[in-house]
Amino acid sequence: MLKKIEAIVREDKVNDVKDALAEIGIVGLNMFEVRGHGRQGGIQLVGRAGVYQVTMLPKIQINIVLNERNLDEALEVILKSAYTGEPGDGIIFVTPVEDVIRVRTRERGEQAMSYPGDIDSKRSRQNG
Length: 128
Fold this sequence. Notes:
- By secondary structure, the chain is α+β, with helices and mostly antiparallel strands.
- It contains three helices and six strands.
- A hairpin with a 2-residue loop joins strand 3 and strand 4.
- The longest helix is centred in the middle third of the chain and has 12 residues.
């Protein structure tokens, strides 16, 4: 079964997350600039005009679709590389993916999700 990871992380941790994912063989992903807040409700800033609340903080959303067998490893890499220990580190959503179709080749499912040098090909080389 395929899963989709939506990880919302700090802007300054995006390269760490992307590099760590590439290191384990996650080669396909999308990133989006998003704004929002979680439990902390934003941050307070002090300026010349006084104290004001910024509620919609800039974040980056990283989307990855992968085989369920690679899910735990990918999640652990994201958790480790996105972590600062401060409020606002982010959140991760995991959802099932019903199907995937590659437009050019019309491949479906796992075939559509395979790339040379991806996590599955790295694992098969290690096991074979």
